[in-house]
């Protein structure tokens, strides 16, 4: 039996790290999770493994680093093929990669712009974020998950970001579920999975974390 | 039944050219449809409603958008002359560099060339740091992909071709000099002489 060493450098509140956690759990891969102190001082291992971005998550597989969360999830899927996270046909895979890219580019920044702004800018940020969520609902259509009948790649890319939604609601003064009920139904479905429920942080804790982030950014 | 492949693009766009290089590398016959970005066609808006951008690859009527997504689709659909390595780790490395180019390098390079005088020095310095990282990554290899061009070389076409054109148009070697980046300049020479690239260079209008 080969000895595999899998280490994941992460941070509890980071949706990007949670993606990797969920993917490894879905594949049943044993790994060592190491919590990085992003504000106190990043570890030498992190700085050495990801010299360009110096960010988490970093997956170390037998000492070799893989960086960037979507890249890590793809790597996990290809290295431990069962159960597959991506559909078998190239077109289905391209569609999944497209939505993963859309989510990467729009959701986190869109949501965070809510707690970073005030007054009229806040209203603009809220409106923008709701449009993004509506587009995601469109992508899912009538399916249970982004990929269809089963939980897969795009669900893993998307679901960790939802633990920040409560914080966006608090700062935005809105209830997101009223605007995108289908998305919330999907969220609840995903949270029934052990891999997701065990990994995602408590949204209340994320909200407290965001309050601190705001202070650090000098926003009052 | 023969494949029907169409590409909606713009002759001057590096993103569009990337897809053409990949199709040519694989020997795929396709129809190129030039878009007027100031007056986007109904078809483009229909096939890419989310981003409304080129390039859009249409394969037997099904649209694929976003150049990096298209390149992987091409690689998975037409197996000859692989663009990505087979090994998952090497694939992850290639994907990392492709994203680095698109998300960090190209915006910095564009900024370096379009900044006003007082901001230009800083912009050039930032772009130089990124080019240095690429230079270090290439060290010893003919191409980013090894002996043959791969995903990263195709994605780096902005550096491979357009950068030289822009510098020439501006009449000065602002950024990419043989002295500062000997390895990258050597890569550019290999790159433009590589036959599939040679056939795909837009003429320097």
TrEMBL record, chain A:
Which of the seven top EC classes does this enzyme belong to? Answer: transferase
Residue ranges of every copy of the GST C-terminal domain listed in the record: 89-209
GO biological process terms held by the UniProt record: glutathione metabolic process
- Transmembrane segment boundaries: none
Q: Which family does it belong to?
A: Belongs to the GST superfamily.
- One short Pfam name that applies is GST_N
Q: Which CDD domains match?
A: GST_C_Tau, GST_N_Tau
- Species, as recorded: Nyssa sinensis
Chain ranges of the GST N-terminal domain = 4-84
Q: Which GO terms describe its molecular function?
A: glutathione transferase activity
> Which keywords does this Swiss-Prot/TrEMBL entry list?
Transferase
EC number(s) given by UniProt: 2.5.1.18
Reactions it catalyzes: RX + glutathione = an S-substituted glutathione + a halide anion + H(+)
Q: Which GO terms describe its cellular component?
A: cytoplasm
Q: What is this protein called?
A: glutathione transferase
TrEMBL record, chain B:
Gene3D superfamilies in alphabetical order: 1.20.1050.10, Glutaredoxin
List the record's Gene Ontology CC terms alphabetically: cytoplasm
Q: What class of enzyme is it?
A: transferase
Q: Which reaction does it catalyse?
A: RX + glutathione = an S-substituted glutathione + a halide anion + H(+)
| Pfam families per UniProt | GST_C, GST_N
Q: Name one GO biological process term.
A: glutathione metabolic process
UniProt-listed InterPro entries: Glutathione-S-Trfase_C-like, Glutathione-S-Trfase_C_sf, Glutathione_S-Trfase, Glutathione_S-Trfase_N, GST_C, GST_C_Tau, Omega/Tau-like, Thioredoxin-like_sf
Q: Which residues form a coiled coil?
A: none
Residues in GST N-terminal domain copies: 3-82
- An MF annotation (GO) of this entry: glutathione transferase activity
User: EC number(s) on record?
Assistant: 2.5.1.18
Ordered alphabetically, the record's keywords are: Transferase
Q: Where are the transmembrane segments?
A: none
GST C-terminal domain segment(s): 87-205
| SUPFAM superfamilies recorded | GST C-terminal domain-like (SSF47616), Thioredoxin-like (SSF52833)
Q: Is the keyword Cell membrane in the record?
A: no
Name the PROSITE patterns for this protein. GST_CTER, GST_NTER
The similarity annotation says: Belongs to the GST superfamily.
- The identity of this protein, by name, is glutathione transferase
In which organism is this protein found? Answer: Nyssa sinensis
